Amino acid sequence: MLPYATLHDAETAINRSLTTAETLWxxxxxxxxxxxxxxxxxxxxxxxxxxxxxxYLFTELLxxxxxxxxxIQPKVRFSVNDYFKCYSDVMRMFILVxxxxxxxxxxxxxxxxxxxxxxxxxxxEITSQxxxxxxxxxxxxxxxxxxxxxxxxxxxxxxxxHEYTAPIAFAAPYAHWAEVLILGIPSxxxxxxVPGHMITFWLWIALRQIEAIETHSGYDFPWTxxxxxxxxxxxxxxxxxxxxxxxxxxxxxxxxxxCDYIYGTDKGYRYHKGLLQxxxxxxxxxxxxxxxxxxxxxx
Length: 299
What we know:
Layout: H1 7-14, H2 20-29, H3 34-62, H4 64-67, H5 80-104, H6 106-112, H7 123-148, H8 151-156, H9 177-182, H10 184-193, H11 198-215, H12 234-244, H13 258-262, H14 267-285
């Protein structure tokens, strides 16, 4: 809740006129508690988990023949019932774990200094903080993910997420309840180290989940804007991790590829891609004939 009774009070406090965005923010949040604003994350996450994967579902159902060339594991098919079951499992976890966690975690947000006050952050500030959040989350998530692939971590927790050896968009948040809680730590660290505005926090949570959905989509579309992000992993990169399954010691990073490269945990993936390239070259040299090979597309 903003500590200003009127727009004039707000303009006096920041010593300038409010921008249009700041005026809208004032009119909407002046009488809304910070706790309610924070809890909007529950609504945002519900909408993201529900609507964003629908793009990939409808694409596969309506344009299967046109997008088949972009499907990473083309031999794997899911029915509508499979999608619905995955979504139901995710929503059950959302209701029992994610939602309650959001409701009780507000004190930590106050403690680290996420603000709702005026002035609003500039676009440069928002962008800079989001980059920092992604980098911190990616590095921390990398090491937690590696621990999940220890014998105990995988058998007791992480194998639930790997039930989808060919991931689908709805399965991005599909995981053991303990994994959901533990992976909340990397997401929280960035805002804790570099606290920003509530708007930045909303964007961070939303963009991270949208990125995870794309990464688990099972499609490697050439027109996605994320392909222009340096060191970005993407769907093809993470799909290999699921394809190998519980034995995977490769491609642990959640967003970028630099950690896997630095620590040598992308060697299996690079060998696999090299093998696929060799098969493709051999196929061309043999006049296009190609025996049945791996069920991951050659690119």
